[in-house]
Write a structure and sequence with these properties.
By secondary structure, this protein is α+β, with helices and mostly antiparallel strands. Helix content is about 40%, strand content about 25%. The strands form two sheets. It has a six-stranded antiparallel β-sheet, covered by helices on one side. A two-stranded antiparallel ribbon has the order 7-8. A hairpin with a 5-residue loop joins β3 and β4. α4 crosses α5. The longest helix is centred in the C-terminal third of the chain and has 26 residues.
Length: about 190
């Protein structure tokens, strides 16, 4: 299940399952397309969100403001595609353009960015933009809770994805208090 979530959650398909070790885990090559189809059928809102984000980004590249649920805003400012997150922080994609993908015959979003230390044109689609959005919002939530923990006197020695590592004297603080602080609602993320 976790491999399918990680491989397929942001638009991956058979190739993503293979690269994440599906064949080594005992699945056969013939089972993979069915697994992709089952995952997408079981998660229609995620799949719909991929294409809503792609449509919003294309509209923004064409100069139209697009607003999506949860406070996402897509717009073009000068030569940059901007995705404003619920926190107000923004993601930037330099020199966005729409190009024809010769392989699929569909329009694809491209922008200037770095790959392996070199500036190049990068192709992207709705699922990849959703991955960027999800990772950025997750970071914003963690940053907010880290500030709260710090303000409550907790010493943060490091953080990993959605976790914090705290170093405290045994007689100060508690796991229950930390969980309570981390569960508190965030103003820009109601619910």
């Amino acid at each position: 299940g976790k491999i399918a979530e990680l491989a397929l959650g942001y638009g991956g398909s058979v190739g993503a399952l293979k690269s994440m070790g599906a064949l080594e885990m005992g699945l056969t090559e013939d089972e993979l397309p069915g697994l992709v189809k089952m995952w997408r059928t079981a998660n229609p809102k995620i799949v719909e969100f991929w294409w809503d984000v792609e449509e919003a980004a294309i509209s923004a590249i064409n100069g139209q403001l697009s607003l999506l649920q949860y406070g996402l805003k897509f717009y073009r400012k000068n030569n940059v595609l901007v995705i404003q997150l619920p926190s107000g922080r923004e993601l930037f994609y330099q020199d966005p353009a729409l190009e024809l993908d010769n392989r699929t015959g569909r329009q694809i979003i491209t922008f200037n960015g770095q790959e392996q230390g070199k500036w190049t044109r990068i192709k992207t689609r709705g699922p990849k933009l959703v991955e960027n959005i999800v990772q950025a919002v997750s970071r914003d939530c963690l940053a907010e809770t880290m500030l709260r923990l710090y303000g409550a006197g907790y010493k943060i020695v490091m953080h990993i994805h959605d976790e914090v590592v705290l170093e405290m004297p045994e007689d100060q603080g508690s796991i229950d208090e930390v969980c309570g602080i981390m569960r508190r609602p965030i103003d820009w993320a109601p619910g």
